[in-house]
Design a protein that fits this description.
With about 130 residues, the protein is mainly α. About 55% of the residues lie in helices and about 5% in strands. The protein has a two-stranded parallel sheet with strand order 1-2.
Length: about 130
């Protein structure tokens, strides 16, 4: 396949449209989040018109994606959270990110610092 920037841009637009549509949905945990990402990757593969088993490839892409760090904190984030914890200052993370944010904080080593996470879906009010 020859690189086609317009095709890639179209696939990215399809994927973003899907994510924008489902992002306000509150998901209980990463198990509920996984099918969203699998479907996202299937849509992208379809939009790229790739001649592959899209279901299997989407599952594999999602599996690999799930093992990566999806956020890059500012350099001061982890030390600041550690200092707040040391001083006994309670910290709650409110985010419009999905449940995988909990794992990413855990992977950063700040899970004990941020034991409570709340999810705020776009256009919704939720209490953590």
């Amino acid at each position: 396949m020859i690189y086609d920037e317009a095709l890639l841009d179209g696939a990215l637009a399809v994927g973003q449209q899907y994510l924008d549509a489902v992002h306000p949905t509150t998901l209980a945990d990463e198990a509920a989040e996984r099918p969203v990402w699998v479907h996202y990757h299937q849509l992208m593969l379809e939009a790229l018109d790739l001649d592959v088993d899209r279901a299997d490839v989407a599952e594999e892409i999602t599996r690999i994606w799930a093992t990566t760090m999806g956020v890059e904190p500012y350099p001061w984030t982890v030390p600041t959270l550690g200092e707040l914890s040391r001083r006994g200052v309670p910290v709650v993370v409110l985010s419009d990110a999905w449940p995988s944010l909990r794992r990413w904080f855990h992977d950063l080593g700040s899970q004990p610092v941020c034991p409570c996470h709340g999810h705020l879906g776009r256009g919704r009010n939720h209490q953590a």
